């Protein structure tokens, strides 16, 4: 098989909360310090897996700062996307002042932003970043804002350093790659289970929520892609697919339950999602035993 030596694995990190629903920076630091012992290429902080829509701006920045301490500034992508340009610019400036060296920015959300509004949004965020790389983040299913490949090429012209695509097929990710081919900027997918397919389509790798709790199988996929070892890749892909399946496609309650198995303090959810049931917790413990 073809080797892909530039394949990257970036983990999307969870945020941990205490029994009262407050951000637990101590537990979050414990989880991040443990994951930092693995050779990830980067971490995506305060995104969807990090329940960012439930966090105040100060909480988001504090969680990102904890990640930067654990993983180093060059491997930490601070998510500063917001519903408004005003808020995104403010978060961007503060993050840079706090030492951010990589930024990720979701499109505006809730209101269906126009093309002109999107261009203005990224132009102003890139300007506020003052030279710090800005990665666009597209997630039409959650934001109501669709960005077709041709429009992404226009957004990239604002100075984006790369892009993450979530909730789209690998075939469409390939179209985004083609649309940005002349700019040479990396395209990542949020599809944990399609790491190999994304890379084969020209993507730079995946931003994976499941790997934040179960990094080993995804690192095995990455390493097999880098060396072009087809046999190792087949085994690693099966293990990564199992990791996605047993965590219910990265369900946050399941991911946090896996973190507990790894010795991280228990954490609830702020997002309006159901907690893991006792039966599912017992099944999960057995299912992940050889993936930890």
UniProtKB/TrEMBL annotation:
Claim: Lyase is one of the keywords in the record: yes
Pfam families (alphabetical): DHDPS
Stored InterPro entries: Aldolase_TIM (IPR013785), DapA-like (IPR002220), Schiff_base-form_aldolases_CS (IPR020624)
Keywords: Lyase, Schiff base
CDD domains found in the cross-reference section: DHDPS-like
Active site per the UniProt annotation: 137, 164
Residues noted as binding pyruvate in the record, renumbered to the chain: 49, 207
GO molecular function, one term: 4-hydroxy-tetrahydrodipicolinate synthase activity
Protein family membership: Belongs to the DapA family.
The protein, known as: 4-hydroxy-tetrahydrodipicolinate synthase
Native species: Micromonospora pallida
Lineage: Bacteria, Bacillati, Actinomycetota, Actinomycetes, Micromonosporales
């Amino acid at each position: 098989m073809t080797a892909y030596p530039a394949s990257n694995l970036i983990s999307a990190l969870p945020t941990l909360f205490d029994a009262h629903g407050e951000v637990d920076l101590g537990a979050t630091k414990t989880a991040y310090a443990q994951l930092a012992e693995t050779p990830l290429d980067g971490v995506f902080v305060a995104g969807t897996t990090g329940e960012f829509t439930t966090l105040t701006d100060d909480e988001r920045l504090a969680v990102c700062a904890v990640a930067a301490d654990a993983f180093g500034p060059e491997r930490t992508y601070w998510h500063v996307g917001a519903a408004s340009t005003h808020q995104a610019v403010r978060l961007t400036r503060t993050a840079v002042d706090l030492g951010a060296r990589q930024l990720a920015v979701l499109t505006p959300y809730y209101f269906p932003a126009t093309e002109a509004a999107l261009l203005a949004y990224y132009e102003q965020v890139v300007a506020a970043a003052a030279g710090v790389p800005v990665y666009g983040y597209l997630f039409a299913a959650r934001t109501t804002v669709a960005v077709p490949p041709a429009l992404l090429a226009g957004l990239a012209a604002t100075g984006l350093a790369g892009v993450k695509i979530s909730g789209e097929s690998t075939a469409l990710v390939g179209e985004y790659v083609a649309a940005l081919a002349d700019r040479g900027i990396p395209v990542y997918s949020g599809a944990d289970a399609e790491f190999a397919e994304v890379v084969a389509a020209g993507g730079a790798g995946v931003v994976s929520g499941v790997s934040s709790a179960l990094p080993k199988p995804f690192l095995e996929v990455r390493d097999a892609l880098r060396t072009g070892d087809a046999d190792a890749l087949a085994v690693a892909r099966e293990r990564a697919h199992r990791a996605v399946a047993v965590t219910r496609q990265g369900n946050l309650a399941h991911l946090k339950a896996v973190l507990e198995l790894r010795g991280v303090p228990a954490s609830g959810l702020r997002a309006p999602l159901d907690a893991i049931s006792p039966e599912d917790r017992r099944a999960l413990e057995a299912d992940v035993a050889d993936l930890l």
